[in-house]
Design goal:
With about 500 residues, the protein is an alpha/beta fold. The protein has helices at about 1-10, 20-65, 115-125, 145-155, 175-180, 195-210, 225-235, 255-290, 290-335, 335-355, 365-375, 380-395, 430-435, 455, 460-475, 475-485; strands at about 70, 75, 90-95, 95-105, 135, 160-165, 215-220, 240-245, 415-420, 440-445. The strands form two sheets. It has an eight-stranded mixed sheet, sandwiched between helices. The chain has a two-stranded antiparallel ribbon with strand order 1-2. The protein is globular.
Length: about 500
Amino acid sequence: MSGLVQLASPVFHLSNFPRRPFSEVVKNKIFMLHSTHKHALLQAAASTSSAADYSGEWVDAKTKQRRRKIAGVDQDELLDPTLLADPDSCFCEFKGVIIHHKVCDADPQAEKPLENQAYSQLAHQTKTIGFPMILLHGFGASVFSWNRVMKPLAQITGSKVLAFDRPAFGLTSRVNFSEQSSPSNQNNTRPLNPYSTAFSVLATLHFIGLLAADKAILVGHSAGSMVAVNSYFEAPERVAALILVAPAILAPLSLPKMAKRNRLWKVEGNQLGIDDQIQEDSVNSNIHENPLIRFCKILSKFSQYIVGAIMQMMKRAANMLESLYRKALSTILRSAFAVMLVRMIIDRFGIAAIRNSWHDPGQITDHVLHGYTKPLRAKGWDRALAEYTAALLIDPASESRIPLVKRLDEISCPVLIVTGDNDRLVPSWNAERLSRAIPGSCFEVIKHCGHLPHEERVEEFVSIVEKFLRKVLGGPEKQGMQAASSSVY
């Protein structure tokens, strides 16, 4: 042990270490402490920065995750609408648009459960109707909304029932109309806007021809009612009857009786006009004899000419401002901002609007929600809705047409209007006024029902439609009357 101490002592003797002043040692110690503290701070800052980066990435990931879903539907992998089709889905091309539709044919030999025996009995009673039926959905809906009534309606009519998705809805293809109508397009003719009402009207008439029918019964729900009525005015000889369900058509404030009175006044006024002409001729003979009166008349005509010229200038200026307004509004509604706004509105209010459409939201199942939100998985759904809104607000073709409200009393085919007593979107009082504006129309209210009678009260809705069709189209004699009336057009 002592040997080890003796061997080790020379190595660790203080004389073997270099001697440095105490101040230098202190400085080195202070520098080491400072460096250690600085290194620790750098490490802490680095760890804090990495934690902040991780936190930022986590928040960004959560934000992106929220953005990836609209109304609960994943937006990462949007698909072509044809890839979302059901087994019974059909597609056809019309004016460059691939339209999704479904057809249900009457099958009298199919076995029915006990609860559907009433439908088979109705089909037997009304098999002489023979007219096909075309169903037109409302805003935000699709063929899915008619699923529960297509088969019963086919049994009632004894013919085919067809429902199709209007452009911007369902699984119909989303066409970029902005590119088609751009100035760079080589075609000088302006293409028909697929999101306009005129396109839906022509598509409706196309499907009547596709069913190889001379006439069809048109059933429109909500905004689809407007398409149905416009289709009638486009080709009244092709429409056997109109059934408007919770129609989103603003009823006129004045009833058609006023128009009849105006026509009577025009007839009775012919004799009054002759008398006025005689009196005017006698007055004119006196005017030619008085120079002062003649001068006043010339001055009056000159002032009328000046006022007329000023009014024309103001009208042109107003038309110019309106044109600029329409162009500006069209640019805004077709911009990326409008698309973002559409996505925001659908995400925030889409599901709430579905629930608000029912009298009893508790009846809404996950299947119903899936059916309404499934089109949100289609490519271009957001831009298509923006295009549809733009066409609805600034459709140039609507300027040359007589407003629909002023033509309701011209409808001569059988009309049925059905509404729910608790419709929060289109109040039942508007539907009642609309029925009074259409001569000879039938009006039915379904109790404890909201905006979707064909979904919420299926049996009552089908029963009302069956009674109406039997009344107006049920017998061979009435069909002959319909054929005779169609030959007038």
